[in-house]
């Protein structure tokens, strides 16, 4: 998960270098800041062990029990100088780093090479720019890689898209909480939901959603905003008929009461980003306000659906 997009300067005369640091007892954000301070052009977090990768909660970067922090440097970078600067910055004598060359590439094209039109449910397709769904009757979301998370390739995103495809959304107010790239909000708008609130703490996610909504011709239906814009008596309070949240089990549990406030009686909450073994705990957090159902799994990920009870 990149803190920043890869730069796109004129190609250097040598391959890029990746310099990686893994310190289990150090804050990965501090390592990232140190890498940036010594000249990293971009910084990426990777799993240092075999921990599962989760969809990030709104506005946060996912971290693992062991996190490898990878800095991208110009190919002619003096590794010894970088190691020495990191040693001083982090106060770690004898600091070990891993170094690997990385050939210069058009990173967006590399990503698009592996991203093909994908169908979710009976009629919903997600396609990269310039690609068309093979079904002439398809409802198509056009999406390219960007700063924010969400292209439909993660199982929990796929579960949400399939649910949206099978739901009757025509004229129903919907909220996508933790919108990321805006993929769920845009899909809902294309499937007839209106209005659609796309909510995220991360300014980059809000910007990406605005751009993607305009590209898909649904800007008039999609209202992009931060959570603070909805509280304490924002425009969506008590008016939402469907709320979709594809984030993490912990934040989902903490947000149960807030989601209940946003949803009208009889409204539907759709929760994802949850490992199957976490489903029971999340359902219990919602049972005060919702009648919950463990709807289905995809790989190790679960989709939960609930109906808002009458007050």
Short overview:
The chain is of the alpha/beta class and 311 residues long.
Provide a descriptive summary of the structure in words.
With 311 residues, this protein is of the alpha/beta class. The chain has two domains: 16-105, Alpha-Beta Plaits (2-Layer Sandwich); 150-308, 3-Layer(aba) Sandwich (Rossmann fold), CATH 3.40.50. 27% of the residues lie in helices and 27% in strands. It has helices at 28-37, 79-90, 107-113, 155-166, 183-190, 203-215, 249-254, 256-262, 279-286, and strands spanning 16-21, 42-47, 67-73, 98-102, 118-120, 124-127, 139-142, 174-177, 196-199, 222-225, 240-246, 263-275, 290-298, 301-308. Helix 1 (28-37) packs across helix 2 (79-90). The model is unreliable at 1-13 (pLDDT under 50).
- Mean pLDDT rating: 82
Q: Percent helix among the residues?
A: 25-40%
Oligomer: single chain
CATH architecture group name of the largest domain = 3-Layer(aba) Sandwich
| Whole-number total of structural domains | 2
Radius of gyration: 21 Å
Number of strands: 14
Residue stretches low in confidence (pLDDT < 50, at least 5 long) are: 1-13
SS element count, helices: 9
Strand order of the largest sheet: 10-9-8-11-12-14-13
At the first level of CATH, the class of the largest domain is Alpha Beta
* CATH fold field value of the largest domain: Rossmann fold
- Structural category: alpha/beta
């Amino acid at each position: 998960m990149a803190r920043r997009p890869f730069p796109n300067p004129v190609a250097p005369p040598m391959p890029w270098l990746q310099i990686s640091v893994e310190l289990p007892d150090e804050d990965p954000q501090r390592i990232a800041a140190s890498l940036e301070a010594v000249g990293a052009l971009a910084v990426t977090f990777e799993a240092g062990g075999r921990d599962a990768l989760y969809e990030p909660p709104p506005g946060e970067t996912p971290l693992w029990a062991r996190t490898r922090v990878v800095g991208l440097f110009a190919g002619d970078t003096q590794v010894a100088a970088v190691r020495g600067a990191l040693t001083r910055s982090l106060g770690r004598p004898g600091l070990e780093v891993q170094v690997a060359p990385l050939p210069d590439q058009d990173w967006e094209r590399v990503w698009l090479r592996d991203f093909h039109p994908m169908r979710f449910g009976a009629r919903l397709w997600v396609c990269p720019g310039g690609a068309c769904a093979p079904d002439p009757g398809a409802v198509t979301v056009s999406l390219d890689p960007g700063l924010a998370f969400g292209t439909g390739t993660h199982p929990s995103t796929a579960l949400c898209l399939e649910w949206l495809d099978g739901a009757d959304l025509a004229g129903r107010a919907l909220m996508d909480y933790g919108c990321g790239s805006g993929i769920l909000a845009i899909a809902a708008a294309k499937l007839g939901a209106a209005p659609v609130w796309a909510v995220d703490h991360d300014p980059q996610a809000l910007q990406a959603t605005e751009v993607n909504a305009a590209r898909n011709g649904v800007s008039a239906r999609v209202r992009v905003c931060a959570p603070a814009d909805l509280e304490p008596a924002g425009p969506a309070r008590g008016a939402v008929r469907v709320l979709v949240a594809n984030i993490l089990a912990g934040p989902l549990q903490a947000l149960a009461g807030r989601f209940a406030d946003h949803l009208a009686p009889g409204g539907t909450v759709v929760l994802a980003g949850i490992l199957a073994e976490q489903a029971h705990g999340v359902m219990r957090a919602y049972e005060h306000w919702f009648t919950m159902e463990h709807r289905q799994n995809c790989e190790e990920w679960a989709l939960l659906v609930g109906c808002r009870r009458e007050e």
